[in-house]
Each structure stands twice: as structure tokens, then as C-alpha cells.
From TrEMBL:
Source lineage: Bacteria, Bacillati, Bacillota, Bacilli, Lactobacillales
Keyword DNA repair: no
Residue intervals of the HD/PDEase domain: 34-151
Protein name, per record: Hydrolase
Pfam families per UniProt: HD
Keywords: Hydrolase
Source species of the chain: Vagococcus acidifermentans
Coiled coil region boundaries: none
Keyword Hydrolase: yes
GO molecular function annotation: hydrolase activity
Length: 164
């Protein structure tokens, strides 16, 4: 699915002060879910979460901003251990610390960022927007891993069988 986030004027008004910063753009240097980088993943989570927050009368601005910043960490979680605890516990706290260096973070945005790994961590989200980002994050992770695999398998089947 191609997301037209760049042409969504409302969405861009919420994230334009963040999305083109060096800190956020440098997320493109880090692989995320096998076939995506962390910037692509963060934008996907941010934009899809924003759309759902709008649809469900949530705080679309806080959701878009926190969704963009939810994985604002600059290390390879597959090979580097940062701090005490699991990656699921540690990286949201690092992302929050980094986000606070970029912009003022509201209590809602803080809850979204810190609790986006609910399911892999114990503390449940406090707000519906936090649940939205949590679920969209999981959805995007699965899509980023499985969609390229599905496309590759489909191409092989078409080449082998000559059918769609």
C-alpha cells in the first residue's frame, strides 16, 4: 500500500518540524524489519496511526508526532545492548529521551512512545492513542517483513506456473 503522507497537508503540519531534522532523517541508516529502514517504519506507523486517530476522534496531532518518534534510537538492536532490560523495554525510553531533545513532549505523547511495546512489556497504555500506535506498530512490522516475502513468492509462482 502506497501512503501519500507527503501530500496530506494536515499531517505534514503536525510533523514537518520533526520529520526533516537530522535526528529523524538519520533513522534511514538503520535497518528495521528486514526489508525496511527505521525511518520508513516510523513514517508508516506515524501516518497510519494519525489516520486512525482522526477516524476515531483521537488526538491526531499527538498521535502523528509520537508515532514518528516512537523508535527514535540510533543503534542496531540486533547486535548492540543498550542499558538494562530487554530491547522492548529499553528502546522506548531511549526514544523518549531523544524525542525530548527535539521537541516538547506532552504526557499523551510520552505514554504513546514509552508504551508502544505493550504486549512485549507489562505496563498497559493509558490512552486510546497509545493503543492505536501500539497496534499499528505491530501491523507495520508484520507488513514490512511479510509483504516482500509474499511478492517474491508470487513472482516465483508466476514464473514457474505461468499464472497469477
Amino acid at each position: 500500500m502506497v501512503l501519500d503522507w507527503q501530500n496530506d497537508v494536515e499531517y505534514m503540519s503536525y510533523v514537518e518540524d520533526l520529520i526533516f531534522t537530522e535526528e529523524v532523517q538519520s533513522l534511514s541508516e538503520h535497518k528495521q524489519h528486514r526489508y525496511s529502514n527505521r525511518l520508513e517504519h516510523s513514517i508508516n506507523v506515524s501516518y497510519r496511526s494519525y489516520l486512525l486517530a482522526k477516524k476515531w476522534n483521537g488526538n491526531a496531532k499527538a498521535t502523528a508526532r509520537a508515532g514518528l518518534l516512537h523508535d527514535l534510537f540510533h543503534y542496531d538492536w540486533r547486535t548492540e545492548k543498550m542499558g538494562e532490560g530487554t530491547h522492548a523495554y529499553v528502546h522506548p525510553r531511549i526514544a523518549l529521551k531523544n524525542a525530548k531533545k527535539l521537541t516538547e513532549i506532552s504526557p499523551l505523547e510520552e505514554d504513546i512512545i514509552v508504551k508502544h511495546m505493550f504486549g512485549a512489556t507489562i505496563a498497559p497504555p493509558k490512552y486510546k492513542e497509545s493503543y492505536i500506535v501500539t497496534m499499528v506498530d505491530k501491523y507495520c512490522a508484520c507488513e514490512e517483513v511479510f509483504s516482500p516475502v509474499y511478492r517474491k513468492m508470487k513472482q516465483k509462482a508466476v514464473a514457474y506456473l505461468g499464472v497469477v
